[in-house]
Each structure stands twice: as structure tokens, then as C-alpha cells.
Write a structure and sequence with these properties.
This protein is α+β, with helices and mostly antiparallel strands. It has three helices and ten strands; from the N terminus they run H-E-E-H-E-E-E-E-E-H-E-E-E. The chain has one domain: Cyclophilin.
Length: 195
């Protein structure tokens, strides 16, 4: 009888602990709504806190509304987040520090920050990797090997990303690999109930 009582008390304690334990917060997720369909991206604030905070600030302010994917290279990546449909560049906030040394790799479906040759120059533009883009990974702290910061991954809708990637492209002034037909980002929204 005592063994049964002990077992029941232990079972009740375990059940109570599971109920009262705080839920682990899910990683933030955003939906990209485009004229080619939607896709959902999970962000990794533990790996790239400054980058994710910067990106979410742009998302919440509506910065990405009616911007375009302005650079598309099949079997490499699709890039967007900085230009309007008329190829005018949007004004951004100051750049963020490069957090590429976070262990995340530029693998298919990952979201990374676009930048200039200056390591800490990323602002609002991002790209989605289509392949294992090993040369873009962090290899060391010097400017030539610091790489590009990965801060998220496509969870759903990679077929939409790949459809965008095969869009025929042209050169527009100084810009190369610009989609012939506009690939519009209607908006990027934070998902209140993540998948």
C-alpha cells in the first residue's frame, strides 16, 4: 500500500511539474507574401540576436511592403529587401555587426544578410540560399573570410522560393540578374502563432 501511495504521489508531482513548467518560447517566424505565393521563415535570435532584432524592426515598421526580389541567380540565391519596383533603393537604418561566426551555414533554404565588401555593412537586404554556398560561410575574422550571416531558414514554401529562382533575368543599368517580370514582396509579417 505504501509503495502504491508513493507511486501515486510521484505521478501527481510529475504531472504537476509538467503543467506548471514554463513553456519554451518558439523562435519567431515571419511570412513573406509575394506575387508568386507565400513562404514562411523561422528566425534564430539565439544565434544572431542583433541581426534578428534588426530584421524584425524592419518587418514591424512595414519597410518590406512592396519591395522586390531584385537579384535572382538560379542554383545560387535570391536577394531582396532593398529596392522598390522601379529599382529605386530604399533608405535604411545604420548597419548591424556581422554575426556570421554563429555556427550556421549558408545551406539550401537559409536566410542570410546581404552586404557590401565591408563586413559590418548589412542593413535591410537579405538573400535566401538555394544551394550549399560554402564560400559564403564564416572561415575567419578577417574581411575576406568573415562570410555572410545566416539568421533563419525557410520552414514552408521552398517551392515558391525555387519558382522565383528560375525567373528569367536582365540587366538594368548597373544592376545584374534583375527579374524580367517584377517579383513583388507584398509584405513580410510576423506570425503571432508560429507553426
Amino acid at each position: 500500500m505504501r509503495k502504491l501511495y508513493t507511486f501515486l504521489m510521484l505521478a501527481l508531482f510529475t504531472a504537476f511539474s509538467l503543467v506548471s513548467a514554463p513553456a519554451i518560447a518558439a523562435n519567431p517566424q515571419v511570412v513573406f507574401e509575394t506575387n508568386h505565393g507565400n513562404f514562411i521563415v523561422e528566425l534564430y535570435p539565439e544565434k544572431a540576436p542583433k541581426t534578428v532584432a534588426n530584421f524584425l524592426q524592419y518587418v514591424k515598421s512595414g519597410f518590406y511592403k512592396d519591395t522586390i526580389f531584385h537579384r535572382v541567380i538560379d542554383r545560387f540565391m535570391i536577394q531582396g529587401g532593398g529596392f522598390n519596383a522601379d529599382m529605386s533603393e530604399k533608405q535604411t537604418r545604420p548597419p548591424v555587426v556581422n554575426e556570421a561566426a554563429n555556427g550556421l551555414l549558408n545551406e539550401p533554404g537559409t536566410l542570410a544578410m546581404a552586404r557590401t565588401s565591408e563586413p559590418d555593412s548589412a542593413t535591410a537586404q537579405f538573400f535566401i540560399n538555394l544551394e550549399n554556398n560554402v564560400p559564403l560561410n564564416f572561415r575567419g575574422p578577417d574581411p575576406d573570410s568573415i562570410g555572410y550571416c545566416v539568421f533563419g531558414r525557410v520552414l514552408k514554401g521552398m517551392d515558391v522560393v525555387r519558382e522565383i529562382a528560375i525567373t528569367p533575368t536582365i540587366n538594368v543599368g548597373p544592376y545584374y540578374n534583375v527579374p524580367k517580370s517584377t517579383i513583388l514582396i507584398h509584405q513580410v509579417k510576423l506570425i503571432t502563432q508560429p507553426l
